[in-house]
Specification:
There is one protein chain. By secondary structure, this protein is an alpha/beta fold. It has five helices and four strands. Strands 1, 2, 3 and 4 form a four-stranded mixed sheet that branches. α1 packs across α2 and α3 packs parallel to α4. The longest helix has 22 residues.
C-alpha cells in the first residue's frame, strides 16, 4: 500500500511534534537561540542521520508553516555526527538511525545532557533478487552469508 499525500502530511506533522518534544525532553534546549525581529523567533538546530533527514526536513517544514516564530535548520552528516553534536551542545536535536552506544550515553550524562530516544520510523533491508540471478531459497538465516559471497 502506497501512502497518500494526506497520510504523508499527517505523518510529517506528527514528526514535527516529535522533533519539538525531543527538543524539550533532551535537556539540550540551552543552545536554542532567540533572534530579534518584529517578534521573538526561536531557532532550532537539528543534525545527524542522513536516513532520518528526509523525514526531519519535511516535519520541520510543516511545523514552521504552522509556527512562523520558529526557524528549524535540519542537516545530515550521519548518526555519529548528530550524537556528537548533541553531546557537545552544538545542536538541539540529534537524528540517529541507530541506538546510542553506552559510551556515548555515559559521555552525554557526564556533560549534563540526558538524551531521550524517540522512534520516528522503523527501517529494514529487503533483498530483491533479479529472476535471472541463480540465488534460490534465500532465507533470513542464510541471507548474510549468501549476500556476502
Amino acid at each position: 500500500m502506497v501512502p497518500s499525500k494526506t497520510h504523508f502530511g499527517t505523518i510529517a506533522l506528527a514528526m514535527a511534534g516529535v522533533l519539538i518534544l525531543a527538543l524539550v525532553a533532551s535537556g539540550c534546549t540551552d543552545s536554542m537561540q532567540k533572534t530579534s525581529s518584529t517578534q521573538d523567533r526561536v531557532s532550532i538546530k537539528v543534525t545527524g542521520s542522513t536516513t532520518v533527514l528526509p523525514i526531519a526536513q519535511t516535519a520541520a517544514e510543516k511545523y514552521m508553516a504552522e509556527n512562523k516564530d520558529v526557524k528549524i535548520s535540519v542537516s545530515g552528516g550521519g548518526s555519529g555526527n548528530g550524537i556528537k553534536a548533541l553531546i557537545d551542545g552544538t545542536c538541539d536535536v540529534a537524528n540517529s538511525s541507530r541506538f546510542m552506544k553506552d559510551s556515548e550515553v555515559k559521555l552525554a550524562v557526564e556533560k549534563g545532557v540526558y538524551p531521550v530516544p524517540f522512534a520516528v520510523a522503523i527501517d529494514t533491508i529487503v533483498p530483491i533478487v533479479n529472476p535471472a540471478n541463480k540465488v534460490a531459497n534465500l532465507t533470513t538465516s542464510a541471507a548474510p552469508g549468501d549476500l556476502h559471497r
